Amino acid sequence: MIGRILRDVPRRTLVLLACFFAVLAAVPFIAGDYVLTILILILYFAYTGQAWNILMGFTGYLSLGHALFTGLGAYSAASLFVHFGVAPWLGLLAAIPIAMAVAGLMGFLAFRFRVSGVYFAILTIAFAEFARIGFDHFAWVSGSSGLFLPVAQYAHNDLWRLRGNPMMFYYIILVATALAFLISYLLLRSRTGYFWLAIREDEQAARATGIDTFRYKMMAVMISAGMTSFGGVFYAFYYNNLFPEQVFHIARSIEIILAPMVGGIGTLFGPIVGAFVLETASEGLRVILEAFGIDVPGIKQVFWGFVLLAIVIALPEGVWPWIARRLGLKERGP
């Protein structure tokens, strides 16, 4: 089935996709740690944006509290590592189910009582805020004092324990982003994906045709949460410290959704393109401000706001559909 789906992809699309990831795979051999650090951040937001896109882009349900799932993933794996020495890859066996269980509870409350639109978005914010307040007073993870992962100097990269240099983390998040892209594509071209699109376009009509909308919406929110939780695990072991006020804050959720919004909600390349546009522009702004000795608190957020406003006005569908049309590719496809 997978082979049949992939055979349906235009050859030109496959060539461009292969070249894109091949270039990214070769970057560490010609770039320094500074460039790798920027690319890691870009790919992190591309990955989490891809996960968020499953819920909003494919199913049409806006989540403004997706930091909840990155936070749950981060704290689950990090606390097991700190207290019991459990490797993060094994910690995923706890992080993903926990995130999916909380998403299932949230989804059940929302979909059982037909909560949608702005009210669903508010519900996701409420869950993230509950988690922030709860973890702020959770002594086992050090509460507001912060949870710090042990950092040591390693003579080599320890992939199993996620201890190593930026190159190791770069390839991890690159592979994760590529897999998220592939998973999203396969889901979108599957029976489930077509049902999601039907729900997004007209949920009442989808229900009238016999689609179990409750079931497929639950699948969307839980898959999205499970994928997002891996981003949280990566975040924890890359930055080595976690604070509830930082990890669960609504600003983290906004950062997750900006990439697909700028790149194109509901598209596969949108989160990747949006992440590159935002982060490269933001880093360029930082370099310019530092060159002129300007230090303005919150300037990054203001800049992102102007970028988003400009794109919404000039390219309401996002940057990727505009690029796709000029490359002769499908607007809504990969």
Account of the 3D structure:
By secondary structure, this protein is an all-alpha fold. It has a two-stranded antiparallel sheet with strand order 1-2. Helix 3 (33-58) packs across helix 13 (270-291) and helix 4 (67-84) runs antiparallel to helix 5. The longest helix is centred in the last third of the chain and has 27 residues, at 213-239. Helices cover 73% and strands 1% of the residues. The chain has a domain at 34-249. The mean pLDDT is 91. The two termini are 18 Å apart.
Tell me about the largest β-sheet.
2 strands, antiparallel
Strand content: under 5%
The SSE string, one letter per element, is HHHHHHEHHHHEHHHHH
Distance from N terminus to C terminus (CA atoms, Å) equals 18 Å
**How are the strands of the largest sheet arranged?**
1-2
Specify the number of helices: 15
Shape: globular
Question: Using DSSP, what is the number of strands?
Answer: 2
Mean pLDDT: 91
Main traits of this protein?
334 residues; mainly alpha; two-stranded antiparallel sheet; globular
What is the secondary structure topology, with strand pairs?
Layout: H1 2-7, H2 11-26, H3 33-58, H4 67-84, H5 88-112, H6 117-136, E1 147-148, H7 166-188, H8 191-201, H9 203-208, H10 213-239, E2 241-242, H11 244-247, H12 250-263, H13 270-291, H14 299-314, H15 319-327
Helix pairs in contact: 3-7, 3-10, 3-12, 3-13, 4-5, 4-6, 4-10, 5-10, 8-10, 12-13, 13-14
Short description:
With 334 residues, the protein is mainly alpha-helical.
